[in-house]
Amino acid sequence: xxxxxxxxxxxxxxPDVAASYDKARVVILPIPYEATTTYRRxxxxxxxxxxxxxxxxxYYDEELDREMWEVGIYxxxxxxxxxxxxxxxxxxxxxxxxxxYKLAADGKFVIxxxxxxxxxxxxxxxxxxxxxxxxxxxxxxxxxGDLRHEYEGSIHNHACVMRRIVDMGLPTVxxxxxxxxxxxxxxxxxxxxxxxxxxxxxVQPDWMERAWASIQTEKVFITIDLDGIDxxxxxxxxxxxxxxxxxxxLLTFLRHIIDxxxxxxxxxxxxxxxxDSVVSEFTAAKLVYKLxxxxxxANGW
Length: 301
Hints:
Blueprint: E1 26-31, H1 46-54, E2 60-61, E3 66-67, E4 73-75, H2 89-105, E5 109-114, H3 119-130, E6 137-141, H4 161-167, E7 172-177, H5 182-191, E8 194-197, H6 198-201, H7 207-213, E9 219-225, H8 247-260, E10 262-269, H9 279-299
Parallel strand pairs: 1-4, 1-5, 5-10, 6-7, 6-9, 7-8, 9-10
Antiparallel strand pairs: 2-3
Helix pairs in contact: 1-9, 2-3, 3-4, 8-9
């Protein structure tokens, strides 16, 4: 029995190619939760915008030479939906944790769509419970460190998500970082965290090799805050920062991880749609389809 809450959503890629839950290898989980936005609001509308834009994504992937929808993609109903009602951070984390755990227990590869980045704490906790005897590395694509202990009175602010994950004792690799406070800089030095800053990525050709080498475990969870990508490619985010990863560097980096490690799940967070523009949501939808395709090829689906 799938945990179903919230309103029905448009299936990823469209109803013509949507798989049933039983036949799906991949589950798209929309989590339109927004409570701690600190700059530009709208990320609670991100999941629906991605799903809507996915209707325009070409089924055939020219890089992979396949129509990747054939692996079976099921779109779950939305959970922790703040468009309908106020949702506390505790309720969001509980709902997210329970839903992702159930989906993972059913053998599904889950790609969660946010919503604000604080959601990732609940997702990662679900995978901790699903992998009690084995650690995994959280690889973060992001403009921001998200390592503050608390922000604006909450330890579950979107600016604190990676601090919560570090506090879980999980190894992390942070890529694309270009905005941190002194508290975060001190924590990075104190704990010797693996951080690959955008200004270094721009001038160091071997950064990918060093980032891959810093992954400490066989299993990996990938969390993507879309502001990690250059805002000329994805301007529709809540906290844009100049600089960031370009499209093909991002894909090269992600595909190598998926090919060489066991990726247990992914999320794509913080899309805040811009009126009269579809470039951000379409790029995000294309990225989700790439993650599905890379995972399918790596696992022989």
